[in-house]
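Q: Sequence in, structure out?
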Amino acid sequence: MLTWSLWSVIRPRMLLAGVVKLLNSSVQFLYPLLLNQILLFIQTVETSELWKGYTFAVAFGLAMIAKAVLEGVYFFLTFRSGWQVRSIMTTEIYQKALRLSPSARQSQTVGQIVNLMQLDSTKLEMFVAMAFHVLWDGVYQIIGYMVILYTFIGWAAFVGLAVMLVAIPVQGLVFAKVLALNKKMVGITDDRVKLTNEVLQGMMGIKMAAWENKYSEVISGYRAKEIKLLRSTMFLTAFSSAYMMAMPAITAVVALSVYAVNVDGNIDAATLFTALSAFGQLRFPLMFYPNALNQLVQARVSRKRIADFFALDEVVQKSKGNRRVEDDDADDAGSDVMVEINDGVFYWKRPSYNAARLDLGADGKGANPVSMAALNAQGEGEETWPDEDIESGENEVERAALRDINVTVKRGKLVGIIGSVGSGKSSLIGAMINELFCAHGSVTLRGSVAYAAQSAWILNDTVRENILYGEPFDEKRYFEVLKVCQLMHDLEVLDDGDQTVIGERGINLSGGQKQRISVARAVYSTRDIVILDDPLSALDPEVARKMFEDCILKFLKGRTRILVTNQLNFLPQCDKIIVLDSKENMPGEIVEQGRYSKLVTSGLDFSRLMEKYNGKEDEDERLAESELSLNAAKDREEEDAESLASERLVSSLLGPREGSSSVAKAGIQETEGKQLMQVEERQKGAVQFSEYVGYIKSGGGYLFFIFVLFLYVLSQVGTVANTAWVSIWADDNNYEDYSLGFYLAGYALTAILLAVITYMRSVAIFYLGVRASAKLHKELIRSITHAPMRFFDTTPIGRVISRFSKDLFLIDTQLPFMFSFFLFTTMFVFFSFGTIGFTTPLFLAAIPVMVIIYMYILNYYRPLARDSKRLESISRSPVYAHFSETLGGLSTIRAFGNSGAFKAANAEKVDENLKGWYLVKAIERWLSVRLEILGAMITILAACLAVYGASEGTITAGLAGLSLTFSISITGLLNQTVRTFAELEAGMNSVERVLFYSKEIEQEKAFDSPNPPPEDWPSRGALEIRNLRMRYREDTELVLKGLTVSIEGGQRVGIAGRTGSGKSSTLSALLRLVEPEMDDPEGPGPITIDGVDISKIGLHELRSKISIVPQNPVIFSGTVRSNLDPFNAYEDDQIWDALQQCAMVESIRESGGLDSEVSEFGENFSQGQRQLLCLARAVLAQAKILLLDEATSSVDYETDAAIQNTINSSFKGSTILTIAHRMLSIIEYDRILVLSDGQVAEFGSPDELLKDSDSEFSGMVGELGSDMAGQLKTLARKAAAARSE
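A: Exactly. Output:
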């Protein structure tokens, strides 16, 4: 189906190309015929009219010109068809990715999908452009040349063909072996690129754990396997080149021996050179036909890989189970119920029949009362899932994500969703927005949807464009959204306000800022239903309260709101609460739902949870306080509403052009700020000689390269000797000097020697290429992994990945061939000119003119070809960067219904890339036609001089044949020399790009130091920070402004503060992810640990002694074991014990144990589960200093309490620094460090700070409401008392 679809698009152009190819091949048949006529004329020059000789000479040149023009048209047509195929595949793969179901997305890594776009689509393109018509034209050429040979040497031609046909299977075996090696290598390349992509995406976590060298070794291990296969391919390819170099000569020897015997050895020069020319031309279809078959096989493999990807499960936009009512019948759209789920059973992927029976209840008496109805519906025409997706014989069964789901959400209501880690909160949201497969029941959404995901998805664009998300700009509404989403303060501190460009994955924003921008995007839209998946977890209490009250309660009032949260203090103000739970080995289900007042008195799970949260007060007192809290919220709402109304009025009256101070302070700007992401480097002019030197040094050095050059010179000497031998033979056709056997043996011997030299020079140049490639990758991975984090802040990951995939692929597989072919063609041109000049000295006078014309064309072509290739390379990276960005936000894009805009953006980037590619190929055709015409002129001149020399008696037929043979060859090789040099330059552009990232990008400080700290350092974990100043980049403001604090060893310190106050920056400074500002770089640094100045030790020595659980968990594809213990340092019992302490044992056992699969970025685990896995790593490491950056922000309160107990017991005696917006997590700590604007605002015990009602910490606690504030004060007092005992 895929094949026919592509053929329907390219058929007209490819059929026309076929006609042109037929004419082109027919013209080539004239070469040996006209050569024969010229040599016959020279043999009989005494009896022939001179004008006939010149006529044949000119006709020879005209045939070459016709061939040049036809070939140019043919290749232009086929390459255009190839571009079409590649662009279609690229855009279709992108569009398919937009439709992938979550489970299908997890089955494919970013690296694998990128390879489909980069490599597989390119293989389809090259088959269409280079091999499609060869499959029939090769047969046509073989038949044509055999007819010519039969005409001249009779049935001996078939003897020669038989020799060639016998030789083909050997070549076929070589190609088959090369194909098998390439197939293995593609798999290893996929794995290497996939791991490299994950390492780059998780570079922050890699650096925090000091895993750079270890992961570099793992990647290098994959690379070593690639290089081993590449070497094997190199030897086989060299053998193939040598074999095909010798075969024409051996074939000619056999055929001419038979012919000579048949005609008593009487072979004249015309017949000899005609036969050799025909056999030489016959070599090309025979040589390239197996290559065309090889390309066909590779194209079929790539087509199957792409077809398999296209067959992956999709999110069905319109089905009976999932329905959005926007443009449907008006009566239904006007219903008061906005979200409705009835008897829902949901899976992350389409289930097998057996799995559905298990989850629904196989006998109709299971947990789900409608189970048999669901199964029986299969035979009654009710669509639950397509019949072809039922695999009744499957042994392995999938567990449903959710079951027994019945939810009704009315228009304008606020619904809160809570539950423990892994209970299915995000799954329920996924079911609502059609991200899960509905196996039974129905889901109906009446209205449009806006969605903010749990992991905030941020575009590499300005703050404003992230919020607008394609909506028209309404300044009044925009300003209101900024205010209610608490972004005003952030825009004041961002360099360019709302025009600040956000880096890839929101790298230059804090977690809270990313989350609030994500929410602002949903709020700014005018969608009917707003779904927010735990957006408050990354915010400090004050900001969370204001955002909940100003944004969710007030601004969104009247719109349907669904809020997933672990912040229990907001639940009393929800209109409805849904409680989810997941028992052992069972799907998530709703255990309770209703109003807060009903659930809190039910005595069930929710009631018990709220008792733990609010303390053990009397029930009536708690309800009364809840009522007071609601009244207080209403009072605040009225006050803030008046204030907001006033600000809106002022903004409206002044307008954007009057310079409203509110707007100015908010950082709203009309001009776009400076780009955070660096413009990709683009070298100008010729590739620097130093790049060639770098490549040669990496490949073995100067002496080895001189040896390679010597082998190429020797190879050309052998080529001239082989052809000259034929010339001598032709002039001794009566065998007066030597016998026929002597000439045949000499011809065969020179051919064999030429084959041996060809093998040696091929192996030598390939060895240089493979060795250079291996060294370039080694230096590249070292440089990238040791680059500072600001490099990754300002460089798109797609740009870096293109170095490891496309550029290295070219350096591996194409650059050695380019180098080899350039050296071969250059030497051949020089030796050809020398040979023609030797046979016809007058030709030497024309060489300077030809060289001037040649150099003029070369100098005109080179800069165009070089820069157009660079433009194509630069325009390629945005395609893959945009693709990677899209894959990170599929659920958001689909929920908003914004796929069309992203498809258009992808098509625009692909078109931009194709502009460069089109230019490259158009320039190549321009060059090809002109240089082949120049070559035809050389042939006309050589032929005319041969005719003239024969008429003057100064040249024999044998020498004329020698001259014409080289003049025919030089026609194509003049073009090939220039093109190959341009391709070599373009290939060296990849070396240039790799060397730039290997040598030019900034590097971190030394990984190891000459004087490392003692092995047992740090023994106490005492931290001393004095006047710590830090900025992320030179062009940004200070984020830490003289921070000073002293922390005793073994203390537990909670770090609090408003979003953007410098909390995470402090941890970054401790790990030296960003180096602090120092007046004297040689002087003492601002941070010491146990008296050791951390600025004077190596980064590995520092980071390996500190454990951190980051705000954004870093999870790699693989297994649970490989994530917790990537380098096999721990026993299974230790790993299970760590999981037990992190409350993850049951979840891991349910998923299949330590060897259960973890998808890319851990997407088959919830956000909370990913955080707990990262915490388990820290438990295993048992470092003396533990840093926790919102490590439990996405888990429920009960799990958080259990985790805090684990931390207290497992890290007893360790220094613990915890950033937490959840005050309950840090209220029992020894000290609280409150930061404000990069400085210490408060530092003391929780109890001391809470006694001061004016302290910032007291204000944060007060934001949680009277119930929670009272409980926290009690816990702080008890903890203080316990410490004093």
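The longest strand covers residues 337-347.
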